[in-house]
Amino acid sequence: MLKSTKIKPQIITNLNINKIPKGTITRYWLEIVKDGMGVPVHVPIIIAKGKIKGKTAGLTAVVHGNELNGIPVIQRLFNEIDIQQLRGTIVGVPIINVPSFLRKKRRFLDGTDLNHIMPGKSNGTVSEVYAWRIVNKIIKHFDFLLDLHTASNGRVNSYYIRADMSDEVVRKMALLQNAQIIVHNPPNDGTLRGTADALEIPAITLEVGNPNLFQKGVIRDGLTGIHNLLSYLEMTDSEKEEPSSETVICKKSFWIYTDTGGLLTVYPEVTQLVKKGEKIATLRDVFGDVIKEYQSPEDGIVIGKSVSPVNQAGGRILHLGIVK
After folding, report:
1. Are residues 220 and 262 in the same domain?
2. Do residues 114 and 39 share a domain?
3. Quick check: 83 and 7 in contact, CB under 8 A?
């Protein structure tokens, strides 16, 4: 994905964007923590710094170790940037959660969801220290944040955005992504987006597809939205690309869960509109007999759904967005 002219990464312990030469694209291995053998754990960072002073846009991916689509989005962006025309700075962090990425696991080493404990603690648990250093060594440098995620194991997602649509700057950031769906979702405590918001950094979450794989179409869509934002921020001169279809904006969303276990079949596809009372899933026992059928509690649009047939009591069925 990256240009064939290789840029040798530098190993650093702290990130100082002000000292990076203008008109360059540089790569770094930033030390975050040391592992159980005292060996540094490094996070990869790519920085494009324009010749003209401007804003700093940050892109992060793989906060969960199995959410891979964001990696090539960031790689391709830096391959396409014209450094001679760039105004300001773009910071790409293709892998935030390095330990989980290497283990091909969603959660951190101690079983914690890293996106539920941000901004962490300087003297906390293994995951809290890691989260705190990510925020203080990297995120605090940003003026804007786009945090790229995917669905979790056993689920599929539409290409959708989580954003606080009551904030005009964040609303514009979200609309520029040309996503299939936007969910109005004020930032929650514990998320990277929520931490950025607390630091007065406008932020959105991009849910770009499914876990554990690269999806060319979704990667391309995510990249287009980022180019749109950079143009809007006057960091680049690229033309805004209009969406091929109208984005559906949801005032809220929620998951529908099973109340008993069995083999689950979910009928609607992502982005499909469903009506209140419409059958959305059937649960069968191991002999194939129907245990229960589930109906949609409201009119809405399917944002994501379970694709794993094995479903214990309390398992997810689908993520329903309620349209304004």
Report:
1. no
2. yes
3. no
Whole-angstrom CA distances from 304 to 62, 155, 234, 253, 317 are 19, 7, 33, 11, 9
Let me know: does 298 contact 277? Beta carbons within 8 Å: no
**Could you tell me the residue range of the domain that residue 312 belongs to?**
255-323
Return phi, psi of residue 135, to 5°.
-65, -45
Separation of alpha carbons 49 and 25, rounded Å: 6
pLDDT of residue 98: 98
Q: Are residues 214 and 271 in the same domain?
A: no
H or E, element range at 24: strand 24-34
Q: CA distances (Å), 262 to each of 155, 245, 269, 312, in order?
A: 17, 37, 21, 6
The Cα 156–Cα 283 span in angstroms is 19
At position 12, the amino acid (one-letter code) is I
154 with 302, same domain? Answer: no
pTM value > 0.90: yes
Q: Is residue 108 a contact partner of residue 114, using CB atoms and an 8 Å limit?
A: yes
Contacts of residue 18, Cβ cutoff 8 Å, sequence gap at least 6: none
Of the pLDDT bands very low, low, confident and very high (cuts 50, 70, 90), residue 155 is: confident
- Cβ-in-10-Å burial (0-12, 13-18, 19+) of 123 comes to exposed
